[in-house]
Amino acid sequence: MTKKPKSDHWKSEEDCPVLVLLVDDQALVAAALQQALAGAPDVDFHYCADPMEALAFATKLKPTVILLDLVMPQIDGLTLLKDFRSNPGTEHTPIIVLSSKEEAETKSALFTAGANDYMVKLPDRLEILARIRYHSTAYWHRIQRDEAFEALRRSQQALVSSNTALISANEQLGKATQAKSEFLASMSHELRTPMNGVIGLAGLLLDTPLNEQQRSYVEAVNQGAESLVSLVNDILDFSKMEARKLTLESIDFDLREMVESVLKLMGGIATSKGLYLAGIIPQATPSRLRGDPSRLRQVITNLLSNAIKFCPEGFVALRVAALSQTDTQAILCFEVQDTGIGISPEGQKQLFQPFSQAEESIARKYGGTGLGLAICRELVELMGGHIGLESTVGKGATFRFTIPLEKQSATEIPSATSAIENTRVLVVSKDAALRGIIEQQMRACKLRAGGVASASEALKRLQDPSEAPFRLAILHLPLDEALALAKTAKANSLTAQTSLIFLTTEGVCNDSPQWAENGISGFLPIPATQCEIVECVGTVLGTSLPTAVPKEMARAPQRDLKILLVEDSQVNRMIALALMQKLDYVVDVAVDGIKAVEAVRQAAYDIILMDCEMPGLNGCEATQKIREYEAATQTPPAYIIAMTAHWGDEARKACLLAGMNDFLSKPMRGSEIQKAFERFGG
């Protein structure tokens, strides 16, 4: 009998002995197989002629492969196969069944009972050798793996002593992971539900007459609630990241629209700190792309938020450009630059690690969980890209990531800059770095930009006859200095024809006569999007711009919509109704899923805003019943929009699977509701 060697005595397949046991009542078959295997030095052949003794023989021999005849006296091969599989000594031993027939039903029964292979006897010598060696090697690998697991358990003083216990431990781990995910999802829902009320009511309060102190209090409440929602989102994303459950979608989107919406979202925070926020996208950059805009928006928003947080003065700039592109794909580079505190080389090494920040002192001063950048890295890599940074302490930081994105099959919308292209623009700003950023914004709109640091220098440049005339001047100056420069320029015949545009964070009135009287021709908000720059310049110059039809005009005509709001929470109903009233929509109300189904049976609705968590009949169940009713009565299907405090791809997929058309995550915002209605076509 060949003994089983210890696994550390062999390193390759050649070191694994092949120990074959043939169970067959026909001696001629045994002789033929022995002869066929005689020329293989690595094969040790053994034979058992009595099938009743085969189980005991195999238990003692410990073969690496069993060749089992199917038809034998006293006991058939199928029964013996089941005995082998129920015996601890042979339950994992590879078994090749030999038969003179080849029947599909017989094979199915054998494989179901645990056979590893099936051959019609007598098999070809090379084929039987190959299969024996394959199954034997697999068996040895299994033994080696089991021994490795056992050694690991011993070294860790584990309590698990068998494969069954190990499987049980893995099941417990799976249950614990599932429980953690369910707990986080539940806590997210429970936290986001009251936060919807806080943010919604704060937003409604901000739309009412408030004195300065009251407004500052409400804004502080709103900012704190938004921060808490962001924190909950980060924790959920990190949990999914750990479980490798982060997924991406692939949909059409407009890059410029997405970037400009993020800039507008972050503009208020930047302005409150006195920062200049800029977005720079060269006209050659493709805009009509396909990918996951929500995850891309999340990365950009996080990087901008960090830049604003750690930037006490100066500017934060977002640049997007195509590194390379083909007819079907573009590799884009996104760059977020700030003039903030910078990051030390030691801090940069751990910056993208979860729950870590560059310096402990920074964490104490600025707060945060340290999850944002770790999530950014995971998302960028999931999108097939790479993220990194360059930074010098005291001189700011530049975060840069590249990702490949598909191009839409539709052609790019023609640029609206052709009518103002190559117009000379003089940028007036005291800060050299900031002036450079504004010049980059102008050049991205195909304007020819130069810059000066003061009003006096601006007058000299504008009056210099050796230079080609500047048709525009962009003023980033204190208001009194800008007005003084405008008055002087207007009074001088050499500069009176130059149009002046004032960059401002103040809520000035463009139509006020005093600005025109003082020589100011137009205004640009901070942050100013490229669309706003092009539109403002075109208006000031009196140029007819060949712009595409604005999205607002391209929508289907507004028509009366019959809308049903399904919401069990009184606070959330009040917020949703107030938001709908601001959008000039009239809404019916159902306080739970059961009443929603009843309402649909009484009237045909164009849009249903459906809460997901409700007693009695939840949103998904109510949607399914509504869809069943529509199908049975051939009623045109309503556009059902999920409203839920659950967040993420899994919640979205569950709602869509239930038959909903769209998904809005709480806290609710009027702009998001309006966009959902636009997707419906209302």
**Percentage beta strand:** 15-25%
**Category by helix and strand content:** alpha/beta
- Spans with pLDDT under 50 lasting ≥5 residues? 1-13, 363-367, 544-558
Radius of gyration, CA atoms, in whole angstroms: 36 Å
Average pLDDT taken over every residue: 82
Number of strands: 22
Instruction: Give the CA-based shape.
Output: elongated
Q: Helix segment count?
A: 23
Q: Termini, distance in Å?
A: 83 Å
Largest sheet: 7 strands, mixed
How helical, in percent, are the residues? 40-55%
What does it look like?
The chain is α/β, with parallel strands linked by helices. It is 46% helix and 19% strand. The protein contains 23 helices and 22 strands. The strands form 4 sheets. Strands 6, 7, 8, 9, 10, 11 and 12 form a 7-stranded mixed β-sheet that branches. A 5-stranded parallel β-sheet has the order 2-1-3-4-5, with helices on both faces. β4, α4 (104-113) and β5 (117-120) form a beta-alpha-beta unit. The radius of gyration is 36 Å and the shape is elongated. The N and C termini lie far apart (83 Å). The relative contact order is 0.06. The model is unreliable at 1-13, 363-367 and 544-558 (pLDDT under 50).
How would you summarize the topology of this molecule?
Blueprint: E1 18-23, H1 27-37, E2 43-48, H2 54-61, E3 65-69, H3 77-86, E4 95-99, H4 104-113, E5 117-120, H5 125-155, H6 163-206, H7 212-242, E6 251-254, H8 255-272, E7 276-280, E8 288-291, H9 293-309, E9 315-325, E10 329-338, H10 345-349, H11 360-366, H12 372-382, E11 386-391, E12 397-407, E13 424-429, H13 432-444, E14 448-452, H14 455-463, E15 472-476, H15 479-491, E16 499-504, H16 513-517, E17 520-525, H17 530-541, H18 551-554, E18 563-566, H19 570-582, E19 587-590, H20 593-602, E20 607-611, H21 619-633, E21 639-644, H22 649-657, E22 662-665, H23 670-680
Parallel strand pairs: 1-2, 1-3, 3-4, 4-5, 7-9, 13-14, 13-15, 15-16, 16-17, 18-19, 18-20, 20-21, 21-22
Antiparallel strand pairs: 6-8, 8-12, 9-10, 10-12, 11-12
Helix pairs in contact: 6-7, 6-19, 7-12, 8-9, 9-12, 20-21
